[in-house]
Structures are given as C-alpha cells and as structure tokens.
Amino acid sequence: MEENIIQKIRNSKLRGRGGGNFETWIKWDLVKKSLEKDKYIICNGAEGELDVSKDGYILDNYLEDVVSGILIAINEVDAKKAYFYLRSDYYLKYKSALASLIKDKPIIIFEKPNIGYIGGEETTICEIIEGKSGMPRIKPPYLTEKGLFGCPTLINNIETFYCVNRISKDEYSGERFYSLSGDIKNKGVFVFQEDTSIEEILRRTDNYPSFDFFVQSGGGASGEFLLPEDISISVFGIGSIIVFNRQTTDIYSLIEKIMEFFHRGNCDKCVPCREGSFMIYEMAKNRKINHKKMEEIIYSLENSSFCALGKSIAIPLKSIFKKILKDGKNKI
Amino acid sequence: MEKIRFKINGKEVEGNIGESIMTVANRHKIRILGLCYCPDLEPESSCRLCLVSIVGREGFFTSCNTKIEEGMEVITSSEQIEKIKRTNFELISSKHLKDCVNCRRKKNCQFLKIGKDYNINLKKNDKHFDCEKYQFGPSIIFDSGKCVNCYNCIQVCSNQGVGFLNIEKSNGFSKIIPSCDNDKDCVYCGQCLSHCPSGAFREVDSVLDIERILADKNNYVVFQFSSALIRSIEQELGRNWNISFLSRVLKKLGAKMIFDTSFGVDVIIEKESKDLIDMINTGRDRCLFTSHCPAWVKYIEFYFPEFISSLSKNRSPHIIWGGLVKNFLIKEKKINPEKLFIISIAPCTSKKYEILRPELKVNNMNPVDFILTTSEACTLFEKNKSILKNIESETLENVFIKSVNAYDSNEDIVSSGIKLFYKKNTGKELIGSQFKKIEDVEQGVETSININGRMINVAIAYGLGSAKKILEKLKKNPKAYDYLEVMACPKGCLGGGGQPINEGISSKMDSSFLEDINVCYDNDIIQKIIGIDEKNFKEICKTNYSLSAKGYIKKI
C-alpha cells in the first residue's frame, strides 16, 4: 500500500519553514482528523523579515511546485478552500501566473494589506482574511482547531508547501533555502542540507569573511547574534544569515534599525511590544541607552508579550548584549 | 453546572467551566491588577498587567484570558511578576498625558489607581507628542493624549453595531480615530467612555455653564432627574445622598423647582399604550419602537432609515416634562423665557445631542436647556462642597418627587406600560407574564400577551448590538414583534455613558426616605402642568424623525 502523505512528511522530519520550527506532520494530522465540515488551508507568503527574500526566490523558480503542495494539502485534509496569502509586491508579480496555474482549483490569491511585519503572523492573517483589523488572536485555540472563520485551518509557509510537493515525489532529502546578506560578496538564496553549519554555508558560498565579523542567524531582524566561535551550529527560524563587519558596524545604528523595524511592523496591541520596542528604538536613536530600563523591557518583552513577535524581539537584543558587546571590541 | 476547584495564592476557590482566572478572583475578592479588563467585554489582553504564574507551568499568564482548570494553582504575585507589571505600567504611562489634576475622570480612573499602587511618578507629561483631541457632535470628547491603546472602545463600539472608532497606524504609531466613512456615525451612547480605563473619553462639559447659570440669581432654574439615579450618586458621594438631600443641595445651589422625570414617563406610558391599541385596532403591520433613547433614535435614523416610521412619535420623558414645565411656568407663573432654564440630570451622553434636535423646539425654545450627566452632577457637587454645609435650612417646597410608581429602571417602565395596556384592553390585571431570552440575541428578552384573543409580541433589547439583531429579524418578518423597547446601552440607562464609572450598582432603590417628600398626582401644580389642551399637547409631546446626516466631528 502506498504510504500516505502525512506519514511521508512525518518520516521526512520536515519542520515548518516559516520560523516556528513546528513539526509539519502534526499540524496536517490535526486538521485532517478534525471532524468539522469546513476546513481551510493558508499558504503564508507574507515574507516580512528584514533583508530576507527566500520565499520570493522560491516563487520565482518553483511556483508550480508550491501550488502543487497546496493542492496536496487541500486533498489530504479535505479542505473547502485554500488562501494563497502574498505580500503586495509578490501578489502583483505572480498573480497572473498563479491564476493560470490554479485555474478552477479552490485556491484564492489574497493580497496582504500594507500593515507591516505583524501581517505575517498566523492568527493575524486569519483576522485579515476575515476582513478584520490586523491584530493577533489569543492562542489557544490553535488554528488547527479554530482558525479561519472559526474552522480548522492548516497554515504553512511557501517553502513548506514546496517541500511537501518534493516529499510527495520522494525528491526531498532535508534541504532548505538560506538567505545570505550583509557584509558579504555573494548575497542571495542558496540551498543546503538543513544540518549544515553557518560556518560551512559561509565557506561553501565563498562568503567567509577575511575580517573580524559577527552574524545574525535565524529569523531576519529577530535572529540571534553570534560570534565566529559560535557558528558551528545550523540555522534555525527562516534560514537567514546576515554578516556584519565588526569594525565598521555601529551597534547603535544596528539596534536602531532592528527596533525601528519592530516599532513600525508590530501591531501595537500589547504594551511591551508597542511601547517597549519604541522606547528602545528611541534610546538607540538618541545614542543614550539606559541599561537598567533596557534590561527590564527585554525581560517584559520575553515574558509578557501577547504573541510570538514580541517575544522574538528579546532574542537579538539579548544576544547583542551577551555576545557582541561582551568582549569590549564593540561598544555603546 | 459543573464546578471547577482550584487555588489562588493557596486559597481554595471555585469557578465554572469557561471562566477566566480574573473572573473567579474578582468574585472571591482577590485583587488582580488589570487596566484593560472589563467584565462585559472579551478580554483585549493588551495591558499585560494582570499576569499570574501557574505552578508547574513555564512562563506567565494573563489572568483575564486564561481559563481555569481543575486543580491548578495560581500565584498572583512574585518578584518576577511585580517586575514585569511595573515595567509594563511604566511603559503605559510613558505615553499618557498625566494631566490628572485637571482631569474630570480622576475619581474613578483605573490608570491613576494603578499608578498610585505602584508609586509611579504621574507628573504631567510635558514633552507630549501627537495627541489629537476630537469632539463627536455635542456629546463626547476623545483626548488621544490620554489613550493607552487598550482598544476597549473599539470593541464596545463595534459590539454596539456602530463601528465608529478605528485604529490607524501611521509612522509606527497606532491611534484611535473617528471614522471618516460617510456611512459610519457616532450615536453618542458613550459606551466608549464607560469602558475607557484612562480617561481618554469624556462627555462635553456642561458643569461650567450650569454653574454660571446658577450664579445669576435672576435666572429661574428648574432641575429634573429620575429618582433611580440616586443610587449612583449615593455610591459615588456617600450614604447621606438620598433624594431629599439631593433636592436640598440643588435648592441650595439655586434651583427654584425640582421634578421627578417619572412624571414625564407617566405621560408617555399613557400615550404609548394608546398608540399600541390604535395600531392593533387599525391592523397596522409594523412593529412600534420606543423612542425615549436618543442614541437608538439616531441609530435608526442613520443606520436603518427604513424603520423610521416604526419609531413612536412620542418625545422622551424628560423632553416632554421639560416642555410641559416651561409651558406652565411661562403661561401661569409669567416667568421670562429668557431667564428660564431646565436642566435634566441624566445617565446619558446622547441626551446632550437630543436636546439640540431642532424639531423638538416649542415656541422656538428648547424644552430642556442642559444635560448634566450623573457623573457631571457628582463633579458639580464636589466642586461646591463648601457651600453645601447647612443645607438643612433649605425647604422641600417646590420639590416634586413621585412617592408611588417611581420607576426604578427601564424594565420597570416597560412592564408598567404593558400592565396599563393590558388593563385598558381587558379590564383585568396582568399576572404571570414573564420575559424570556430571545434565541441568538445576547441581550434581548421577549414575551407575548393575549389581548382579547390577539397575541401581542413584545421585545426588549439592551444594547444596540442586540437591537440590530432584532431589526434583522423584523426585516425578514415584520410581524415578529408588535412592540420593541430598546435601550442603546447594554446595561440599560443606569449603565449609560454619563454614569460615574464604578464597580456596579446596588440592586433596588431604598424608598423609605421618600416619606418627607410630599408629591402625588393630586398635587395642584402637577395637575396644572399636565392639564393642557390637545393642540398644545401635540406640540409639546409629539415629534417627527428624518434621515440623519452624519454628525460633526471636530478637532479641538
């Protein structure tokens, strides 16, 4: 008997490529097993992280495979409809190509409104598709139980659907897309096995710096900062590696850039994320950091934010202070 | 219902399935600090102050939206919890204007209360940026400088089926803004005000105008209020505030006459039951709507104009009574109309808009000149504390409070109306009629009364959200109801936008103190006020409605 797709995904050990790193098969299984009549699929193409464009790269090169992945999901969980949720520029670029691929299949191409990074958060996407304001929902209930229009919903990233299609054809062997940017010469999107270390990726793409450097790895602006001695680990999150020249990087500007991204891209619902990221942004912009206050805000972001976005802001900030500023080579 | 047992700070407590930790803690008088929590709204969980920890689980949980579970052990305070709460409150307060000294809401401000708890410096924020201030029609002011982005106002406005308030994010900041949409308008119900924890919403101030009018001894100032409001005033200002005390205070402040708005209610009940009888006899095929709530009237005129002809043509009780009293004082007592002022103390912000409706004018005069909300009345009394000593010297002459049949609530009014209606039609007393909940309408009740073989279906809706659902029902089936009573505010008039914000209102009014007030219908003056001819009556008590254009919003 042919192995079913969920079993295949399980065996492949595929984890979601949207940053959450959740085992894909579990989500699929939960939605499939739900007894509700209406179920939905969402393909998340909001790709909103700073300096990251691997989903754009996949759309450019493997559009058909992504659509096939979605169709496999519709079929497997018996979904009523799928929404292909795309950030504005992707929407404009691919809508006609998508329309001709989709034809009469129940996939709706949906343009993400102009609301920043939060517009890629899964519960927020449901709110937006339902026509409400761009703010996240309280979890639980999880989307697999009560998602879009209150129905069980399976949401995966573009890359995840791409992988599922490969899994279905027995072509997948644990590879993933990496987005490389920053102070390197060969910027762009590359494919390696998912256990490849940051160091190896930099070397094999001929990007390993000759100067003293540090990297931010994982989820774009919310990635963790690492020194060269820490980069023998693989990349988490959405697979981003940003390289910084230690000598020329101004840490104030770096924090300012990251925090401006969050200040503008968050939803402003909860206090630590709304006011906290703004306050840290202000401190960095004014080149005047109150360390005690900063530490308190980071603690609060990590422990009391409403959604994962707020919690993730603590990662880059903590690692800047713990790693990059620790040895005194960089100062603020 | 199955009970859930769990512990808060080691204390055994009990709750129902689906309840949040906050709800159960409140019921057990365990205080968990929270800014955005409102028992009658879905938790926004935006303030992140009501954090607790749960033994055996990692992290912290907001008690407003964490459901209770059997055997869970909740801890409400620890070094870490306090650290986060303090940080979050400091963050909240970094944006607030903190002009607390000059703020009318300071007495019941949740923001201020928490600030004091945490001993946080609430000095006025001088380098304040970007704070627009809006006035919605003649009723409501929104000062964004005092907004803490809890979003309760957005939720309650949308629950009301109005959706006049929006969030707009520009330049990284989210702001609450009034809708520019031409098909969205404020109906001035003031629920935003009741649900704002930080004083960003308030009613357009009448206290200063009223003080000015009272200060001029040549003016003839008349007050009217519904005696049910005394409970709110008592709760706000202290136990000694019974009706005779309030009346003496108003006299001391300069009132010449004081009336119970219930007299106006009686006029309406009489009229409305007659209208209903006429309607039934002529076989009219549409439902009759009450029209005493100005927010409801505006809601119909703006959002559901197709139902305008259903609205009762009777004016609201205080407008009728104001008109009748003015008519009496000008004609009988020869009071100079220019010096005559009628002030209604009301729980309502929408009445500030109602009194300016041009079609209500009688002889080119507004029947009521000012609305003093209950909350404003409390402010007025507090401001004038010093002159309120020795008020015992004030007599209760010219104070007309109904000793019998004073209405305690809207439900009271509706059931009195139905009873009267029944008696007139059947000659019998109505017994055993009970309201039951309407399916799919959160806050709606209905009943049917058999009048000589014809079933009369009556519905009451609390809150415009519920009223909207009944309207949808009537659109499908115009004969679903014969009579519909609506209060725009979900808790009825006593939960109106003009009420002081407090923990809730005690149940029934204590009427024992009414003994020293003398009035009933056999009173000569009351007889003269209501004893007018039909033409006059029509001019003072009837009105018309029309399609409502969007009200003004101005930046102030």
Structure description:
The complex is a heterodimer of chains A (332) and B (556). Chain A is built from eleven helices and nine strands. By secondary structure, chain A is α/β, with parallel strands linked by helices. Chain A has three domains: 164 residues, NADH-ubiquinone oxidoreductase 51kDa subunit (Rossmann fold), CATH 3.40.50; 70 residues, Ubiquitin-like (UB roll) (Roll); 74 residues, de novo design (two linked rop proteins) (Up-down Bundle), CATH 1.20.1440.230. In chain A, helix 3 crosses helix 4 and helix 3 packs across helix 6. Chain B folds into two domains: 90 residues, Ubiquitin-like (UB roll), CATH 3.10.20; 347 residues, Rossmann fold, CATH 3.40.50. In chain B, 32% of the residues lie in helices and 18% in strands. Chain B has 17 helices and 21 strands. In chain B, helix 9 packs across helix 14. The relative contact order of chain B is 0.12. At the A-B interface, helix 8, helix 9 and helix 10 of A face helix 2 of B.
How do the helices and strands line up, and which of them pair or pack?
The complex is a heterodimer of chains A (332) and B (556).
Chain A: H1 5-12, H2 24-33, E1 40-45, H3 54-77, E2 81-86, H4 88-102, E3 107-111, H5 122-129, E4 153-157, H6 158-168, E5 175-182, E6 188-193, H7 198-204, E7 213-218, E8 224-226, E9 240-245, H8 251-265, H9 271-285, H10 291-304, H11 308-324
Parallel strand pairs in A: 1-2, 1-4, 2-3, 5-9
Antiparallel strand pairs in A: 5-6, 7-8, 7-9
Helix pairs in contact in A: 1-2, 3-4, 3-6, 8-9, 9-10, 10-11
Chain B: E1 3-8, E2 11-16, H1 21-27, E3 51-54, E4 61-62, E5 73-75, H2 79-95, H3 110-117, E6 133-136, E7 140-143, H4 152-159, E8 165-170, E9 173-178, H5 191-194, E10 201-203, H6 207-215, E11 220-225, H7 230-237, H8 243-253, E12 255-260, H9 262-281, E13 288-289, H10 294-303, H11 317-331, E14 340-346, H12 351-354, E15 370-373, H13 374-383, E16 399-400, H14 410-426, E17 436-437, E18 444-451, E19 454-462, H15 464-476, E20 483-487, H16 524-530, H17 534-541, E21 553-555
Parallel strand pairs in B: 1-5, 11-12, 11-14, 12-16, 13-20, 14-15, 19-20
Antiparallel strand pairs in B: 1-2, 3-4, 3-5, 6-7, 6-21, 7-10, 8-9, 17-18, 18-19
